[in-house]
Structure formats: C-alpha cells, structure tokens
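Quick one: structure tokens for this chain, please?
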Amino acid sequence: MENTGKLVLLMTILCVPMISAVLIEGIVGGGTFLLGSFLAPKIYCHFTECCRNKWIKPNITGLQSALRRRVFGQHLVTETVFKAIVGHLNNESPNKALAISLNGWTGSGKNFVSKIIAEHIFKKGLESDYVHLIIATYEYPHQSQVEKYKRQLRNRVVDSVSKCPRSLFIFDEMDKMPLGLIDVLKPFLDHYPPDEGKIDYRQSIFIFLSNTGGHLINNAVLKHWKDGKKREDIKIKEMDKVINLGEFNNKGGFWHSSLIDKNLIDYFIPFMPMERSHIKMCAQADLEKKGHPVTESILNRVADELLYFPEDLKVFSLSGCKKISSKVDYVMG
C-alpha cells in the first residue's frame, strides 16, 4: 500500500505542466529518477491538449467524406475547400498561410463547413485552444476603436501561432468588420521565407465568412436556373467575377484592404442559394439525427414551413438550412 501511494504521488507530479526537471529520490525502492523536460511534457500532453499529433492529426479521408455527406447543394464548396485544405496540410513547407473567403447567403452553410474543417484537423474541433472563432459584431463592434482592436487581434494571432504553428482562425461576419482592422493580418498572410528564431505563420489557416456578394451569387445562380442549365455545371471560375464585384465594391471588412490589393486571399468560394431539394436533404439529416421517421410527406411538411424566393418562382430558400432543426421540432412535435 505504501508503494502504491508513492506511485500515485509520482504520477501526480508527472502531470504538473510547469515541471521542466524534477529530481525525485527514493520514491520506489530507494532509486533515483530524473524527470526531464522530455518525459514530463509527454505525459502531460497525453491528458491535456498540446500542439502534438494526438491533438492535431488531420483526418483527410474523414474531411472528404464529411463534406460529401453533410454539405448539400454546394459542389463548388466541397470540391474547392477539400483541395485547398488538403493541399496546404500536405505541404510541409507552404509558401504562406492559407487564406480562404467563404461567401454567400445566410444559411447556405459557411459556418457549418468551417466547423467540419476544425473537427477534422483538431481533436477538440472548435473547442481547441488553437482554433479561434472571431465574430466581428461581438468582439469588434465599434469602428471608433479600430486601433485598439488591431492590437488585440495582432497579439491574439502571435500568441496562438507561437504556441502552435497549426492554428486556425475563423472570422465570422466579415462584412461587418470595422474598416481597416483586417489589414493587421497582412504580415501573417504574406509570402515570407522562414526566418530562424522567428514565429513561422505559414502552417496556419485563416477562414473568412461573409454575406457580401450573396445577392449577386443568388442572381447568377437564378439566371443559370432560368436558362435551363444544371446547377452542377456552374464552374468556380464563373463565380470569381461575381464574388469580386460583391466583395470589394461594398463597404465591409475587405473594402480597400491590403489583403486584396496584395492578392493574399488564396480562394474565394461561393455558397449558392439552396433549392427545395437541398432543404429536404437537410431535413432528412436532422430527422435521422433525432431518431424520427423519414417519409416524403414529412420532408415536404418541413420544407413547406420555409419561405422561398423569388416571390413568383419560389426556387430558393430565404434562410437556407438555418431554420431546419426548429422546423423539424415543430412538425414532429
């Protein structure tokens, strides 16, 4: 019993994060143990999140599967996001940090896709200490305090990447970001060769979510639909000009930004408005998740609860899949 108690004490000491070198004498059988900076952190990181493989281990196959199975009606998103993320993760020495802008109407899946990305890179997903979800209207509400916000944001990025080069930053509501604030990210997104002794930002990932350009994207997809063309035939190149018009000709986070002037955003990815068929797919997923039966009648009842546009055609959902969960609860209640 006495030795057991001492072993428990030893394990407790091993799990203290601040230990760098501890000398314990005579704990077991009168022996001497040197617990150096190699052993203690290894055991500590078994239980607590660290910037190591146990906690940051990208699941490429899982990411591809999740995007295909869980994201509906967004072929441009599933294709481009997967290639962008995997290409960056597989590059041991990328030229720069990865910067992606996800643009589109509310409810089209921007936050959902960001969540999927986080879940398949970090074991703790959005709860990871190395994943930062930054909501503009919550954290940076006042244009008059932009200089203070710049200092806060700069320090946050530096602190996180210094602890873990593979950090993920998600900026929600970019269209409501104070003007000029996002320019503080330029040094972290630019092309810089590695400098020994300095923080290397090239493995980090920045994702920007914005509603800006949503109307233009919707109009382009509606025209495509009216022309009798298949939704799946829309190419990413066709949408680039549409997004550029919306993103940079309206006041918002990227307006007159050096990130745009210097071409530091690697991908602009459009989220298209969702048709009734996609709404029913979202409804089916939510029904199955909640253990409800799935029938065509129930799917139609859920879909009927949403509003659609344009008024005369009712092709696309005004709220995407954002209200599906509550509508399922209502229909099945």
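The longest strand covers residues 98-104.
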